[in-house]
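## tool: complex_structure
## caller: assistant
## args:
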Amino acid sequence: MSDSLLEALINLLGERVSTAAVVLAYHGKDESHHATAPPDIVVFPESSEEVATIVRLCAEAQTPIIPFGAGTSLEGGISAVHGGVCIDMTRMNRIIQINVDDLDVTVEAGVTRKQLNTDLRDTGLFFPIDPGADATLGGMASTRASGTNAVRYGTMRENVLNVKAVLADGRLIQTGGRARKSAAGYDLTRMFVGAEGTLGVITEVTVRLYGVPEAISAAVCGFPSIDAAVRCCMLTIQSGIPVARVELLDSAQMRACIQYSDLDSEPVPTLFFEFHGSQASVREQAATVQDIAADFGGGDFQWADRTEDRNKLWQARHDALYAALTLKPGARAWSTDVCVPISRLADCIEETRSDIETSSLTATMVGHVGDGNFHVIFLLDPDRPQDFTEAQRINDRMVTRAIAMDGTCTGEHGVGMGKQHCLVQEFGDALSIMRDLKRTLDPLNIMNPGKIFTVGS
Amino acid sequence: MSDSLLEALINLLGERVSTAAVVLAYHGKDESHHATAPPDIVVFPESSEEVATIVRLCAEAQTPIIPFGAGTSLEGGISAVHGGVCIDMTRMNRIIQINVDDLDVTVEAGVTRKQLNTDLRDTGLFFPIDPGADATLGGMASTRASGTNAVRYGTMRENVLNVKAVLADGRLIQTGGRARKSAAGYDLTRMFVGAEGTLGVITEVTVRLYGVPEAISAAVCGFPSIDAAVRCCMLTIQSGIPVARVELLDSAQMRACIQYSDLDSEPVPTLFFEFHGSQASVREQAATVQDIAADFGGGDFQWADRTEDRNKLWQARHDALYAALTLKPGARAWSTDVCVPISRLADCIEETRSDIETSSLTATMVGHVGDGNFHVIFLLDPDRPQDFTEAQRINDRMVTRAIAMDGTCTGEHGVGMGKQHCLVQEFGDALSIMRDLKRTLDPLNIMNPGKIFTVGS
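## result:
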């Protein structure tokens, strides 16, 4: 790190530059099990133009740039593995324009999903994508995030209309407009969505919004086995019922959530459902799903119709990772993340469970099962490296299994540092195309280097 | 065109190589107003591996490659502007695998949308994307096509899960799996969707399927003015009613369709609706939309509930371009294609109508108005170049207007030859990124050269 770069950044941003050890440490650590790696400098820009200048200065100094949102990534996405300048986007948290009549909104990248929904409260609209953490929209776009509502509303892939991004040479571009569809040229929007900051820094995002449904109803249903719960979910999806949410929690995870979030439920394999629509449609969906659940031995639906009860239920689901950690105080969590075609979900979960049961590890399981996506949350003793080795072994087996089932090594957490070796298996020759794109757009390899893949290898 | 390339292609494909004038002429012409440009050779591969070998041979000879599906493009996408080898994909028309339980299907690129839906008939599933023509899935992926169902089911962008493609150097890659979501690396699938054959030749496509709704109901409703019809559509969308289709036809287009497709309707501005869902949900949607329509002076809904009546109605809509041509025998059609945020649709249509009314041209107007997308179909005298100049002028004004409204120069037809000058206006600096991608993936500029943009300029 050259002194002149630091000097230039201070000239540009004044006190919005930090090299304080505690600030550096905070910005080198996410919520994952990966080793921490602090940056050399943290900057706090307040506009796209400032980000562009920062990037130009870093490019001149050939210094790595790591965009940072809420720091809640789960695969080491923000780790400064080659040092460099961390761009903390949280001061860029303005809602730029809510277009109620077009059901879209443009925000700065540092706006969080909860902040956005709070701001939307009086419009009758909402933004459905909800990873567990209160992530920023820029971070969510960069990791192609999803969450509990994806089964009905899609992921960031389907919901980002446009991004404003700073390229590796400091140019500021926009990738799209606000039209609902376009056949104009290459899909640059989707090139930045999921690129994990390796192709540029996203500074603004325009996303789709949805009308708050006339009726919303949530319910919890326990099952005699995890297989029964999964098969209930599979038939629900295959029957074309437009459920808004269908989430699986295994008995260990339920035990943790009941305690952590004070839920009035039994510690058995459980599905959390939510139905959106008109009063009649919600009633109809719920009745059909209740019939399906009963066929799989599901218990009575426990309804959460009041807003506060629903919020409590979904907050509990979003806090699953934090709840799991209470099962083993002092443990480090490692959340896996495969996604398979829905018809293979029961097999994939069953085989994975069998791996876990024959291991010595403590783990829970949660899943956005309507998407075929689930997570094993390993609770690892930081002082036992053999635990990490064992988790890696089971995780690798999960990934191989998922890919063999035509699935993917990551449904929503991204590649970061942890899934790089899986991409070869998943993409084969196509991976070289990704590398070519990276080299083209970032010839100096300064944009979040060491993430997704190592260039040149 | 070197003799040795022709010889090598004949060695590979035998009689599945043609240089017959009539075959060349057929493959140089689409359904657009653009000048025809026949290729030098047409080949008819029967496998992805054959396509890969063809591309390798063409790369060695530095000869252009033009993929060809149904020949129904509307911006000159298949025109062999630099000569070369046309790869006719229509013999690659196998349905490779229908996964009923996963609601997806993998097909060869030469399968047409009607063929696919015929094959799906006994599965209870359907593929919703329906451009007017019976296009191939490969062509539809390449132009990021949509159609009447996009308002409910999305476009090719949202519905392609995976493509198999041959790169410019002859390598065969797959871009994805069959999982509903993935955060693994760059989104190569969406890089090929909409690339118009300029980055590679798509040989297989995996797309999402949907359950045939329990209830389907279609209706036609006439309005006192085009503005009233558009505003009815806007409010329908803004109210969050999940209409499956909402199509606008102006009075001239209705006159043409009534004649061409024997419709029992009035030649007034008209919306065609379709509602999908359970019996109750369809009734509910229909009732709400009838109320909205009445508020805008809409007439009684004319219902088409029987399958044959609905098929007739939608065939009429799909035949709109052919119907329009009967209004002016001998004319050449030029279909424009802008798309704007829904709140700007009425303004965009009104200003465009005013341009047309003050011109000397004959034109009709149709639109996938639920998406904010509409087409003016100009009917031009092929012997009057001034007609084309005038159409170009009005088209350019439409595009400028749409982009100023945060819209796009093409909702679904693609760029091809006709919209290249619009991309500068729409993307600014971001266009250079598209050119960089093109140069990276096709350094010899042999993949459908001269489409989307001229490399180097």
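## assistant note: Residues 385-404 of chain A form the longest helix (20 residues). Residues 132 and 318 of chain A are 4 Å apart (CA to CA). Handing back to user.
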